[in-house]
Amino acid sequence: MFAFRSYSPVSARFRFLRSFAGSCPSGVPIPKKNKLPPRPKWLIVEEEIDEKFLKGGRGPGGQKINKTNSKVQLTHKPTGLVVTCQYSRSQESNRKKAREILALKLEEQQNPENSRTAVLNLRKSMVKQSKAKKSNKKYKEIEAKRAEDKERRELEDRALLEGFSDDEPL
Predict the structure, then answer these.
(1) Element holding 136 (H helix, E strand)
(2) pLDDT band of 138, cuts 50, 70, 90
């Protein structure tokens, strides 16, 4: 009678991206930040990751960073991708952030045109184009108003000069 379909997160993301793939005409709305595709955490298999903890050398955290192994380096064995993260002083938050970065890079390698980073970059360019369009429109209106005022003043000046020349012969 009725067939129910269950969609995986991947196919749901593809359905979302259909309208945003490729070049976007000006009539296409900018995707909302809370409606972006999910982060691709399902791409990471713990057995395929080699994890190392290093002493951090740069960034915020002061002397504590130089003494502790809070920097995380993940190596994805099948692809050879290496990700290092020293986002904060906490080793746990650095592990989490490094896995997110690795997942995004893996997704970008597998599906570059429909990945989350591609959608984010597309959204960023659309927002930038929208702002530029609004700015250009604003300054065109200002320039048109200035030209109109200048033309009106010139007409008033001509009328004033013609009024003086009619009354008094030189």
Answers:
(1) helix 116-167
(2) very high
Two tokens, residue 89? 């002083």
Total-model pTM: 0.52
Is the model's pLDDT at 165 over the cut of 70? no
Task: Label residues 83-107 b or e (16+ Cβ within 10 Å = b).
Answer: bebbbebeeeebbebbbbbbbbbbb
Contacts of 7 (CB under 8 A, 6+ apart): 15
Q: Are 79 and 70 in contact (CB under 8 A)?
A: no
Q: What does the pLDDT read at residue 146? A: 94
Whole-number Å distance between alpha carbons of 111 and 118: 9
H/E segment holding residue 52: strand 49-54
| pLDDT average, residue stretch 39-43 | 72
Instruction: Please tell me the distance from the alpha carbon of residue 62 to that of residue 105, in angstroms, as a whole number.
Output: 29
3-state class of 51 per DSSP?
strand
Q: What is the model's pLDDT at position 98?
A: 92
CB 91 within 8 A of CB 69: yes
